[in-house]
Amino acid sequence: MTKFDPNAAATGGGIFGLPHLPAQARVVLVPVPFEATTSYGGGTSNGPRAILQASRQVDLFDVETGKPYEHGIAMLEESPDVRAWDLGARTAASHVIAAGGTNRDPALLGAAATVDAHMEKMNAWVRATVDLFLERGKIVGTIGGDHSVSFGAIEAHARRWPGLGILHVDAHADLRRAYEGFTWSHASIMDNVVERIPQVSRLVQVGIRDLCEEEHDRIAASGGRIRTFFDAELAEARFAGETWAEQCLRLAESLPDDVYVSFDIDGLDPTLCPHTGTKVPGGLSFQMATSLLAAVVRSGRRIVGFDLTEVVPAGDGTEWDENLAARLLYKLIGWTLRSQR
Description:
Elements: E1 27-32, H1 47-55, E2 73-75, H2 80-99, H3 106-135, E3 139-144, H4 150-160, E4 164-169, H5 189-196, E5 200-208, H6 213-220, E6 226-230, H7 231-239, H8 244-253, E7 258-264, H9 286-298, E8 302-309, H10 320-339
Parallel strand pairs: 1-2, 1-3, 3-8, 4-5, 4-7, 5-6, 7-8
Helix pairs in contact: 1-10, 2-3, 3-4, 4-5, 8-9, 9-10
């Protein structure tokens, strides 16, 4: 067998061109090609496959985190069941989305119920798969798909680390109740986390710049369980002289000891992810995002798991979105490993 050379061009078929199998790897990535409730733009179900392909162009030595690849990184094969549930749910969801919601129409209510049933199967599969590898001592990352795929992964981690905090990077608060009639909507992921996973002690949000009045009121009434660092407020404070490093410290200090990172790619400046579905001006630069991860780790907190969602392949030949996502994924892996040394 040819010895693996981390300095050579990638020749292997694994994530980042690595030769590791899940049994050998310290980090196991779970692809979830599911996007049934996406109502503006689409293509996130092809995100995991595109990230896998683009990852083979990422250099394996990282100036900040060293050599994450030495710990072993493997990505599972996509599940045909998840693909089938996505197709069935998307077909039913399309009628509801076109109507702008169920509008108490029996046929549309039935369609929404069909979507929820498929999504409950997906949630159960993600939870069981993540829990299986956590039980084997792996660090597990989940790759979407839209943001709804994160629920089962967060639940599996929270059951293992009660008191868990969520660092949620996103343009949107995702605190809507059953958006467009879908209980498990991508726009309701954090509502479901807060309401259904009591082991999550705090939700800390950053990059938020697009939310409805109900969500704003929900945050204010949470008693501190939801701590939202609005993008506009952080920007105004920086204009007044506060540094991003100081803001990162404030963010880190608002988290408990064990942290799960839920990263929606649209939390970044949309020039960095121009094909994601719901782009909003503002957001974090790539360096701001990675320095936030670094600040969390340097504060002594431990990242126990993560997800990366809402990546839409560029489709124009540039491979830009998936290239950036692959590099962000490597940073997530690197800082998670650093936090657990």
